[in-house]
């Protein structure tokens, strides 16, 4: 624990516990996904490499948040020494950028998986449209996080003169977009999963992953660390099967 802070209550465990749990769970699901792909000789596709990159971004978020707890994240800001407060806010500033990349890359991975499974032309067009929207939003929201303040250091040190965007409005917009795209991604396969030509075993796995994916929206109301990790696990579920 970094010294210099005043004693007081801390909610750091709300960050540390899920971080430790998902340090084990998330790599396990990603590993099973890749192992299954290799054993089934189905080949690794863009969806797999996208989820792998998303996993490393997610891991970065977890590490940054764990380190920030050592500096006082989870304690009342008045109890933090100035150096620790600045370091905590700086770590959170970087973490939120990787968080937004993680969530949107995971959505992109699911859509890339859809493109790998479904052959219907109208369905693929919808996937490409939604994929373009999500990736464009990822670039835009990441940029807005990086340049949320002018100059940039004002994002973690408000004593520096300058201006900042409304973080409240930014997070509301991000939450709205995330929930809307989650719903669209979950709804898309219903166009094909009910088809008689769609294999029953694959249909079952698809609906299982969709029902599990619904928990992402619930998780997003709890912790950032839970949301991005659960999203990655959801994206890996359809491939987590024995060869």
Automatic annotation (TrEMBL):
Belongs to the SAT4 family. It is found in: Membrane. This is Rhodopsin domain-containing protein. Pfam families: Fung_rhodopsin. The chain crosses the membrane at residues 12-30, 51-73, 93-114, 126-147, 171-194. Its main location: membrane. It is a multi-pass membrane protein. Keywords: Membrane, Transmembrane, Transmembrane helix. PANTHER family: INTEGRAL MEMBRANE PROTEIN, PTH11-LIKE INTEGRAL MEMBRANE PROTEIN (AFU_ORTHOLOGUE AFUA_5G11245). GO terms for cellular component: membrane. It comes from the Eukaryota. Residues 32-192, 217-242 form the Rhodopsin domain. The keyword Protein biosynthesis does not apply.
């Amino acid at each position: 624990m970094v010294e210099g802070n005043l004693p007081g209550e801390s909610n750091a465990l709300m960050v540390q516990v899920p971080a430790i749990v998902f340090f084990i769970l998330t790599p396990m699901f990603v590993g099973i996904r890749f192992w299954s792909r290799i054993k089934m000789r189905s080949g690794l596709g863009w969806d797999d490499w996208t989820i792998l990159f998303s996993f490393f971004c997610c891991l970065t978020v977890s590490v940054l948040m764990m380190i920030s707890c050592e500096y006082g994240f989870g304690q009342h800001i008045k109890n933090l020494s100035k150096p620790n407060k600045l370091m905590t806010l700086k770590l959170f500033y970087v973490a939120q950028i990787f968080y937004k990349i993680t969530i949107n890359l995971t959505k992109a991975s699911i859509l890339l998986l859809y493109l790998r499974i479904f052959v219907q032309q109208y369905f693929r067009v919808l996937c490409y449209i939604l994929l373009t929207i999500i990736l464009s939003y990822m670039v835009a929201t990441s940029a807005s996080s990086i340049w949320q303040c002018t100059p940039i250091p004002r994002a973690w040190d408000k004593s520096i003169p300058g201006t900042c965007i409304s973080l409240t409005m930014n997070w509301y917009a991000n939450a709205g977009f995330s929930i809307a795209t989650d719903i669209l991604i979950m709804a898309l396969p219903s166009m094909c999963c009910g088809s008689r030509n769609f294999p029953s075993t694959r249909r079952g796995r698809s609906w299982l992953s969709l029902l599990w994916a619904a928990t992402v929206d619930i998780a997003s109301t709890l912790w950032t660390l839970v949301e991005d990790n659960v999203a990655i696990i959801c994206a890996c579920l359809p491939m987590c099967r024995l060869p």
